[in-house]
Amino acid sequence: MPGANLEDWPLTYEDLEPFYEKAEYELGVSGDENPHGPPRKKPLPLPPVPENTEAAVLFPAARRLGWNPFHTPLAILSQPYRGRAACTRCAFRNGFGCETDAKSSTLVTVIPEAIKTGHCRVVPQAFACEITVNARGTPDGVVYQRAGAKKKSRIRARVIVVCASATETPRLLLNSKSKFFPTGIGNERDQVGRNIENDGGLFAYGLFDRVVTDQMGPGVCFAVDDFQFRREGAGRLGGILSNYHTRPPLGFVHRVRVPDQVKPYGKELKDFYRTYFLRSIWLYATCHTLPRDANRVDTDPEVRDGRGVPVSRITYRQHARNAEEEQFMADRCAELLKEAGAKTISKPRVVRESQAGISTHQQGSCRMGNDPASSVTDRTGRVHSVPNVYIADGSLLVNPGGANPSLTIQALAYWVSAMILRSHAA
User: Fold this and answer.
1) Staple partner for 217: which of 78, 93, 405, 408, CB 3.0–4.6 Å?
2) Are 77 and 28 in contact (CB under 8 A)?
3) Contact 202/330 with Cβ under 8 angstroms?
4) Partners of 242 in the β-ladder
């Protein structure tokens, strides 16, 4: 595709399937099996979270359109699991912290378990500044600085695993310069930081003449995945859509009000909020986007943070084809809202080669691959040019997958861990 820097993954789904399963069971994932998803050996460990009022509106509407809706898999407990309580259906379960630890983040799952083994030490409020190398050029440690500390410290390491995000991982590698790596570790082919991308997320809103939602969490309980790789032309790549979760009041009035009908202040805005807060449905679509070689993270030659470390600099422009995929999914959101009975529908105006930059779900800046000329790590997550530095975060992802990348990142982390144990076990 012209202008797109697409690559094949060096892994297959069969390689990763056991690690997807491991992540789902270690963390605790609830939901339905995606009717269009890849084959599974085991079902999800937990049933779906309870439906909310939106589900009663959206499921029948989607089926009338001939679609195949299902309950969205969530890293939120629908039942007690491994000593943690089930979700209490707090309205802010998604998008915010969880007071009952029902949200299956690593903070309440694998990290505490690792600490209990006695083999894991967490150094809080520490910023990794540089990976050091020994006299032979082999990485041997990390320089870091604790919050409030005036001096930097160093920890020695036989194996170094970088999991700092698709923005900060390349920053650390690029700032790790020496006579052996004058442009940074892993950057001999100028690939560190290239091809950064995120999935194309967009919102559409429907206003109804009746109550169609409630404030029961966790919110997301409906999804449709009928559109990926199933059409020709515009929208062929497609994406997945779901009902949206976090509905704080200020976010509602900022996003949902119809600008040419409702003033952004005063009585008119308050009346709009009182009328439509529970008479609205937000839909969210995650779309395929196409990476570009020129989209990259590097380090600013002049700007440094308070520790004196060069900051990340992101250069990004959307591929022209992204707009076609996003418009296609915006139209599907509008189609569903109309079928559900929305009287007013607001969908985004998708701009070709938009100036919108990188947001959440960042990925791809240190791709894995078989060819060092076009990737940063091999298929095990090891940086090509060194024997003992691995990456295990979203920067490994070769191309965006048209869905939330979180579970793939978790599966890759388990995969990379298994490869490290195979290669470096004492």
Assistant:
1) 93
2) yes
3) yes
4) 223, 284
- 314: which strand partners? 297
Whether the Cβ atoms of residue 407 and residue 106 lie closer than 8 Å to each other: no
pLDDT of res. 230: 66
Q: Does residue 4 belong to any structural domain of this protein?
A: no
One-letter amino acid at 185 equals I
* Nearest alpha carbon to residue 154 among 135, 129, 174: 129
Instruction: Return the sign of the alpha-carbon dihedral for residues 108, 110, 114, 117.
Output: positive
Answer yes or no: is 336 within a domain. yes
First to last CA, the chain: 46
The segments of the chain whose pLDDT lies below 70 read 1, 93-94, 230-235, 257-260, 355, 426
Q: What is the pLDDT of residue 178?
A: 97
Fill in the amino acid letter for 350: V
Radius of gyration of the chain (CA): 23
Report the CATH number that the domain containing residue 56 is assigned in CATH: 3.50.50
Q: How many domains does the chain have?
A: 1
Domain that holds residue 110: 13-424
State the angle between helix axes of 322-340 and 53-64 in degrees (0 to 180), rounded to the nearest 10. Answer: 110
Nearest alpha-carbon partner for 201 in 283, 106, 78: 283
Do 305 and 299 form a contact (C-beta atoms < 8 A)?
Answer: no
Q: pTM for the full model? A: 0.93
C-alpha to C-alpha distance for 286 and 331, rounded to whole angstroms: 13
Task: Please give the torsion angle defined by the CA atoms of residues 74, 77, 79 and 81, in that order, rounded to the nearest 10 degrees.
Answer: 120
Asked if residue 118 is part of any domain, the answer here is yes
CA distance 128 to 108: 23
In a domain, 3, yes or no: no
C-alpha span between 232 and 112 (Å, rounded): 48
Whether 120 contacts 114, CB under 8 Å: yes
Helix (H) / strand (E) containing 271: helix 266-276
Q: pLDDT digit string (tens) for 55-89?
A: 999 999 999 999 999 999 999 999 999 999 999 99
Query: For residue 333, how far is the Cα from the chain centroid?
Result: 21
Q: Are 296 and 358 in contact (CB under 8 A)?
A: no
Contacts by 266-275, CB closer than 8 A, 24 or more apart: 273/249
- Whether residue 33 contacts residue 43, with contact meaning beta carbons closer than 8 Å, is answered with yes
- In the numeric block, which tokens belong to residue 27? 């963390």
Q: What is the largest CA-CA distance in the chain?
A: 72
- CA distances (Å), 121 to each of 112, 134, 374, in order? 10, 24, 35
